[in-house]
Every structure is written in C-alpha cells, then in structure tokens.
Amino acid sequence: MVSADEAVARVQDGQRVYLHGGAATPIALVEALVRRAQGLVGVEIVHLHTEAPAPYVAPTLRGHIRHNALFIGPNVRKAVQSGAADYTPVFLSEIPDLFRPGGPLELDFAFVQVAPPDGDGNYSLGVSVDCAVAAVEHARMVVAQVNHRMPRTVGSTVPADAITLVVEEDCELPEAGLAPITPESVAIGKTVAALIPDGATLQLGIGAVPNAVLNHLGGHRDLGIHTEMFSDGMIPLIQAGVVTAASRHATPASPSPLSSSAAAVFTILCMRIQACSFSPRTTPTTSM
Fold it and tell me: Which residue, of 18, 23, 87, 197, has the fewest CB within 10 Å?
C-alpha cells in the first residue's frame, strides 16, 4: 500500500492513463497526478464521462497533460471545443479493443476506484463498470484507490493480483443532479412517450429530455430496459410496475435478453450537438 503521490510518481513522460468514469473517478489519484503534472511532458488522460472535477484540462497544464475524451462531458467540453483536448468518436462496445496491447489507445496505467476486498481478496468496481474492466485487463499497471464509501456491487470483480499499487483513501462519491425540465423538454417528452407502445424496450440517455419522456410513461405497461445508463426518473416507473421486462426473452442468438416481439426499440437521445474544433494529433507509442 502506498500514498497517492507515491503511486503517480510511477507515471512518466508520454504515457497514457485511463481514469475510471462516472461517479467512480479516483479523485485522490487525479489530484496527485495534477500536483505532479508540471514535471511531466505529453501525458495523455483518457476516459468516458466523469462526474468528478477535471483539473487536468486547466490551461496551465497544457503540454504536460492532454485529455482525450471518449465521451464529452460538461467538465471537459470547453477544453475540447477550444482544441485544448481531443475527442475520439467511438461506440462504447468498441472501447475495449482500443485498450488492447498494440491498439490505438494502448494503456500504460489504469487509475480506478474500488470497494474494499471481499474475503477472497477480490475488489468491486462499485458504481461504474463500463470499460473499466477492459482497462484493468489491458493496462500495464493498475493503480486502485480503495474507498470504504464505495458500495460493493455484484458482477465483475478485480482480483488482487491484477492490481499493481493500492492507495487507501476514503472520499464521498460525486452525485449527478437532475437536469431541470424545461417547457421544450416537456413537449418533446410527451410527443416521444406517445410513440412508445406497451411492451417496448427502451434505451435511455441522461438529461432533461429522457427524464421528461419517463415522466409521461406512467400509463404504460410491461416496458423493458436495455441501456448503459438511466437516471432517477426510472425509479418511480419500476416501483409502479410499469417496467417489468415481461415482454423480453433471452434468445440463443444473443447473450443479452432482447425483446422477441415486434415492439420497437426506441432510442431516446439527449445529446446537444455543439461545434467542436479538433487538432490532428499523433500519439507516440508508449512504454514503461
């Protein structure tokens, strides 16, 4: 077990670091890396959406750390728009292949946050799994911030021997507030909800428009969910018995339970398309 500063001291010039996303970003490791940044050149940070602050996109760190966004969240949007950070358009399902040895985004480090180990020594990735499993699997070094406030979730776990360095530091997890629902989003939500039949399977985004749609689904029956994310607006529908997945069945053609009926799968998009300027960039092959 080491301190956060001792862990990030292993990061060298030109290396690539993955940050655990969502509400699981290892804030202690991020803060330590930013403290060290002035002594580094050309370090790249890659991640999906994060709820934590992103101090590594500060103008004072240009040339030291550069962010490559796999999802443009509010905390890095200005940096991407100004050309101070990069954006790699990619499907979520394609990200693990980017992280593989020899891949376009081969990883030197994976900085993750985990719950304390269970009796078998396995760590839980807690509230955010997404592509963190692939990052842990493929990164040359895995640094884990162990946080006793991180809830243990079932599913993918990280064995102790997959972790290079452990940093034990507790902190509160960031929370995502509900986006305010505007008259425009209410009108869109009502229109979209009217198109959704009973028994449909939904893929959801997050933000005002998806929440407005969910607010108008109270009279529906047997809806199913097949999505990588959803907001608190889903909870009342589950509690009311609107979301039951009764029309969904597993099929031999797919490991995931997909609807076997002709019910449409509606994709609810809440993306605001904004003009972004990008600079072509060649990332050098990194090594330990």
Answer: 197
The predicted-structure confidence for 100-114, as pLDDT tens digits, reads as follows 999 999 999 999 999
Q: Which two tokens stand for residue 25?
A: 């970003």
8-47 pLDDT, tens digit per residue, is 999 999 999 999 999 999 999 999 999 999 999 999 999 9
Question: On the CB side of 113, how many CA atoms lie within 13 Å of its CA?
Answer: 28
User: Helices (DSSP H) in 20-59: which residue ranges?
Assistant: 27-36
d(CA 142, CA 136) in angstroms, rounded, equals 6
Token pair belonging to 246: 């009764």
192 neighbors 213 (Cβ within 8 angstroms): yes
What residues form DSSP beta bridges with 111? 19, 143
Helix orientation angle between 208-215 and 183-195, rounded to the nearest 10 degrees:
50
pTM: 0.77
Query: Which amino acids are annotated catalytic?
Result: 228
Rg (CA), the chain: 20
Report whether 207 contacts 229 (CB < 8 A). no
